[in-house]
Amino acid sequence: MTDINACQTAPEAEFNDYVALLKPRVMSLVVFTAFVGLWIAPVDVHPFLAFCAVLFIALGGGASGALNMWYDSDIDAVMRRTQSRPIPSGRIQRGEALAVGLALSGLSVMMLGLVANWFAALFLAFTIFFYAVVYTIWLKRWTPQNIVIGGAAGAFPPMIGWACATGGVSIESLLMFALIFFWTPPHFWALALFMRDDYKDAGVPMLTVTHGREVTRRHIFAYTLVLAPFSLWLGFTSVGGPLYLAVAVVLNAAFIRGGWQILKRSEEAARGDDFATEKRVFKLSLTYLFLHFLALLGQNWLGAW
After folding, report:
1. Are 105 and 125 within 8 A, CB to CB?
2. pTM of the predicted model as reported, rounded to 2 decimal places
3. What are the extents of the domains in the chain?
């Protein structure tokens, strides 16, 4: 009788809950970078095949999100910003999330192989595995370098898009990977500065938890300096040009300035204004990556004209 009552009072899953399981907001930037990687590649792809390829990369990204939510449901239930997700809120069961993740993983890889090529499909399969197993299951709960190494999963999509068109890897796709790879730590550590207590309560060894905010601030600034050369180097390849370089110079100057402002912040000042600077730099980091890839797209169109 207790089980029946529990089933009657449990919230019912709606279509939007299954969409939320795929982390659409997080994956939207990933999908955009994959699209740019495909579009600017030096091989013409039929628009319909390009659309299908991006769609299946998006499904693969969604599958990664579902598998991440399945495994991290215990953490999500503790952290304030994730408590309303479909599994912690009880709208979707863990077994359902695992089934959705596995089904979409298989579907996305098989279909990408059919519409593009099997190199790109295997690359997508490896990316799903890396995010779900290497990052989520292994690194995230084991090392404060979780986001550094695990960030590779989010950096692979433009390489997958490029591989859909070319069937291989090039210096351009490797530099797009490097751009996202070195962007990821300062992006997530800026978030971790004002979400430190959530990570601590959940037992996630983020750098802010294991080494403190002062060390994290130094790491953020250092990574903005390391990131800039890779961003600018991309402008001197076949996909770069004056438009991209102008955008990259401005964005890197702004990001380095933001990292410097974070570095110079005292704990008292940060707490006093509710981490306003850290939140601003976190938002800036999102703009930074989006505008870099938008500039690549714009440079490609200008080149075509």
Report:
1. yes
2. 0.92
3. 14-168, 170-305
> Could you tell me which residues come within 8 angstroms of residue 194 by beta carbon, excluding any fewer than 6 positions away?
270, 274, 275, 278, 279, 282
Q: What does the alpha-carbon distance between residue 61 and residue 17 come to, in Å, rounded to a whole number?
A: 16
How many whole angstroms separate alpha carbon 39 and alpha carbon 160? 11
Residue 154's H or E segment, with its range, is helix 152-155
pLDDT in tens, 206-242: 999 999 999 999 999 999 999 999 999 999 999 999 9
Closest residue by Cα to residue 185 from 231, 149, 228, 230: 149
Beta carbons of 228 and 252 less than 8 angstroms apart: yes
The domain defined by 14-168 folds into: Tetracycline Repressor; domain 2 (1.10.357)
Instruction: Kindly state the tokens that stand for 114.
Output: 């059919």
Phi, psi of 302 (to 5 degrees): -65, -40
